[in-house]
Every structure is written in C-alpha cells, then in structure tokens.
Amino acid sequence: MKAFTDRKNGIYMFAFCRGTKFFLKALPSFICSLLMVATLSCDRSGIENNVSTKVQNEAVNATSTKPATNESKADSIRAGYGVPTCHLGMSVNELGKGWVKLKNPYLSDYLYSRSQRIVVMQKAGCVELILFYYFSPDFEPFLGTTEDKIGAQSKVQDVRRVRGDPSFIFNRKLLDTDEYPGSRATLVAYMEDGIVFQFINDNLQFITIKKPQPNFDYSGVEQDKMVVYVRPVGKRVSHSESK
Q1: Cβ count near 133 (within 10 Å)
Q2: Taking a C-beta distance cutoff of 8 angstroms, is the pair 112, 92 a contact?
Q3: CB within 8 A of 64, min separation 6: which ones?
Q4: Which phi and psi angles does 87 have, rounded to 5°?
Q5: What is the C-alpha R_g of the chain?
Q6: pLDDT score of 15
Q7: pLDDT for 4-59, tens place per residue?
Q8: Where are the domains of the chain?
Q9: What is the rounded distance in angstroms from the CA atom of residue 188 to the CA atom of residue 160?
Q10: What is the pTM of this model?
Q11: Is 184 in contact with 171 (CB distance < 8 Å)?
C-alpha cells in the first residue's frame, strides 16, 4: 500500500496494489489516517525488534485479551484526552523511555511503547493522535477500557448502547494487502467527542483518541458510499452534551 497526500485539500490518496494494478481511493484525511495505521502490519519491519507473525482471519475470533482487573477510572481512556501517562497535547519528551519510531516510511510520525501498549502520532513534538490496540499481529494488546467500560470484549452494539448515536459509521471490506484480508472493518466515530472505535468483524481492534471537533463538518461523510450511518441533523451534539 502506498499513500500520497494532498495537504491543500486535506485528502490522502491511497494506492492499493493487487497484482499489477493499482486502485486509488480519495477519502477525508481523518478517515485515511486511521486506515493507514490499521494497515501497519503490511510492512513486517514496521516496528523495531518486531517478531513477524503470519496473519490469519481466525486470529480475529481467537482474541482473548482481558481488561485489567485493578484499573481505576483515573487510568481509563477518556475521549478527547487519552490516559494520564499519554494524552493529547503532551510533549513527546514527556512520554518517557521505551518509545520507538515505526520504520514504515509513510508512518514516520508514529511512535510505539511496548510497555504502555500504546501507539501515538506526533506533530511538532506533541501527541496528536493516540491508538489503543486490543489485537494486532504487531502490537501488545492494551489491557484497559474507556471510562464507560468499553474494551476488548465490546461489540458495535455495545458502543452504540453506551455512547449513543455516533457521528457516522464507516464500513469497508479489507483488501488482500490489509492485516485481515476479506474481513469487514467498521469505524464507529464520535467526532465531537474525539473518540473513534475500529472493529474487525465486530471485534474491537483499536480505539483512537483525537482532538474533539464540536463543529464537525458532516458534508464529506454524507457523500461517501462506504458511510452506512450518519447522525441525524437534530442530534449532532457530543456524548457529554447529550447526558
């Protein structure tokens, strides 16, 4: 997979290679940045000292990660923030030791901590995006949950029941070049709150924490054919505001 960025329009152009043919797909940058991270395993040298693992679809259903039993709410993932040891806006220098850069040339701004089990994207020396993986052939599974107890065992319906209607739901079938070929990837996004959930075949793969967008522009997602749900106009408020 190759990626080309049109910074002026905030669009990533993805070229998916299947045999000798390339297929281009233009998507809003906030979606593509998530999809880009979801395909880290395409490059088996993605992490320093990474142990190569053959990925099979059965690995998704075999997930057995259990949330930490002694986790306090203070240590839980908070939407639009992260966790105390790694939160948005935090200086990369404050993250401490043990963070390594990803070798993938298209992901040079990403760092990974094996001990904290967290992936971050940094911009101008500060944490811009945080990812908590629950299963991946490349990352150790995160053991915690969100403040509202969404974690490794949660399904799409659980997220919607707990957090209410998302900003949008994005579906796509994974290609041969992806981590889990032929599987169904689902993004359940709460853009106003700054939290996005990605599922593979209804199994929670990772949670993304980003800056909240209280005035999120829905025009882009409303036009995309892979977006299967968009929050109705009258309900476009954040989860915290709706409580």
Answers
A1: 23
A2: no
A3: none
A4: -135, 165
A5: 17
A6: 30
A7: 333 333 332 233 333 333 333 334 555 555 554 544 444 433 333 332 233 333 33
A8: 2-64+72-242
A9: 9
A10: 0.76
A11: yes
Cα 46 to Cα 189: distance, rounded to the nearest angstrom: 26
Query: CA 17, CA 6: separation in Å to the nearest integer?
Result: 20
Q: Under a CB-based contact definition with an 8 Å cutoff, are residues 63 and 152 in contact?
A: yes
Q: Is 24 exposed, middle or buried (0-12, 13-18, 19+ CB in 10 A)?
A: exposed
User: Which residue carries 């408020």 as its tokens?
Assistant: 237
Task: Read off the DSSP letter of residue 234.
Answer: G
Distance CA 179, CA 183 (A): 9
Residue spans of alpha helices (H) in the chain: 29-38, 58-61, 156-163, 219-222, 239-242
pLDDT in tens, 178-216: 778 889 999 999 999 999 999 999 999 999 999 999 998
pLDDT the model gives residue 153 = 94
Name the residue among 125, 132, 117 with its Cα closest to residue 205: 132
Q: Which residues of 170-193 are buried (b: 16+ CB within 10 A; e: fewer)?
A: bebebeeebbbeebebbbbbbbbb
Contact of 163 with 207, CB cutoff 8 Å: no
